[in-house]
Amino acid sequence: MSRRPQPTDDDGGLDSLLDTMTNVVGILVLVLIMTQLGVSDKVARITAESDITAEDVADARRELEERRSTLDALHRQEQALTETAPNTMRQRLQQLQDALADRRIQVKRQTERVNSWQLRIETDRRLAETRQKEIDETDANREKLADAIRSALERRAELAARLEDAPQTTAPPDLKLRIPWPRPAPEGAQELTFVCSDGRLYPIQLSVHQEAARLAAQQIIAAHRLDGNPAAGIDPDAFTRLFTKLPTPPDEFFRVEYTVADRRWPRIRFYPRDGRGASERALRRSGTRIRKFIRSIDPQKVYCRFHVLPDSYSLYITARRIVTNQGLQAGWEPRPEGWVLTVGVPGIRLGPPPPPSPPSPKTSPRPPPSVID
User: Which one in 73, 131, 144, 274 has a CA-CA gap of 20 to 30 Å to 57?
Assistant: First the structure.
């Protein structure tokens, strides 16, 4: 709340001037009244006396003239005061107004300065409140971190005590690795496929499923005459509609699905059944079903091919050591997460046949792929 401005000395000077003028006018009025009263008394006294002399009349006239002279002098003083006072008062009033305007400007400036300081004080107060909140939050976070550190130290001490009380175990033997030696599969040997996924081993004989899919596809083509136009080849739309609806042969470890890729190539997809494969624990035990199956494989007729997903490398190492100890040759391929085993149907191509290739010069036959390492 702003303070009221203090009265100045200039206002007091104006009041004094007005008082002086009022006193002067009052004195003149009193003198006039006294004069009139004195003349009236004199006339009455003269009238009452019967012995009026010429001297008395002259004295009275002389006194009357003196009183009139005094009255005229008073009138002249009153007129002079009346003529000169307004100009002086106007000048004084203008000076007071100028002084008042200057004082108002100073008060306005002082008010603006005070308001600016009040605004700055309010801004600083809000900033201080914000900083205090940040300090309180920092203190709360510090307490939480301190509690977390204490809990972690207590947990560490608890684990250290449990570790001291735990029985000492020997480390497993070091793995013996050998340098890979990529080479083709033995002539006439069939591939036995293993999929290592989700920490389990899924075996499958792909050639059996491929032959079953090839026979089913040929039956569809012959029964519905899908190859009636040699130039157009097998109708891909009709074949796809019929082939994908065929019942797939049952498999213990995989869910089998027939499909067509790019409207040209029949495909077979194999999805591992949950929990059907052999675990790593089952592989380590010699009397389990998977170990008996591996022992029944003829190393002279079969080689193993592993497809390993990222979550089953440990399982693959165990299985590879077992098949190697059994005398089986094997190879492996790393596969990305979400990979699905997919193979083609041999001898089946949809759509128009490819143009005949030009005769090529006699060259040596292409070497078989290196599937053994």
Answer: 73
